[in-house]
Design goal:
Blueprint: H1 3-34, E1 45-46, H2 54-59, E2 64-70, E3 76-79, E4 86-89, E5 94-99, E6 106-113, E7 118-125, E8 129-135, E9 138-144
Parallel strand pairs: 2-8
Antiparallel strand pairs: 1-5, 2-5, 3-4, 3-6, 6-7, 8-9
Length: about 150
């Protein structure tokens, strides 16, 4: 093999490696930026945790307004995991969970008794009305999602 062909062959190998490594770098960068954004859960507010966006809150009704009615004889906790919503709800009172994101259709809602034992956890639609009946250890839940359709 002549020295010119050998140099050309080495040069083509080097260029192939540079191109492959740059393509891998671009792919990694694209993948990391594609999965980097998640919806911030701090945008939730409730009856007990007012929203920090008070200007927006006074102008429009939130697209997400989940109502939790405590018709039981015990206190319950209303929580949305990884958000500031962690409300201690008295018997006979209601709690509203708000979110102003129009692209949010379902919310993962967790209801716990006064001892923090979970008795309900599910995705509910944005206008659900969740009613809790009964007492600790024997709660009954009615989820009305008619307004969501």
């Amino acid at each position: 093999m002549s020295p010119v062909k050998l140099a050309s062959f080495k040069w083509s190998l080097i260029m192939k490696r540079i191109i492959k490594s740059s393509l891998v770098g671009v792919a990694l960068l694209a993948a990391s930026s594609a999965f980097a954004y998640t919806k911030p859960l701090y945008t939730y507010s409730s009856t007990f945790h007012a929203s920090s966006t008070t200007a927006q809150a006074t102008l429009v009704h939130p697209p997400t307004d989940i109502t939790v009615i405590n018709a039981s004889s015990n206190f319950i906790y209303v929580t949305v995991p990884n958000s500031p919503i962690n409300d201690y709800l008295q018997p006979g009172y209601n709690d509203h969970v708000y979110n102003y994101d129009p692209n949010l259709w379902f919310t993962y809602l967790v209801l716990q008794d006064q001892y923090r034992a979970t008795f309900y956890s599910a995705n509910v639609c944005r206008l659900a009305i969740v009613t809790v009946y009964g007492y600790t250890g024997h709660f009954r839940i009615n989820v009305d999602s008619d307004l969501c359709n």
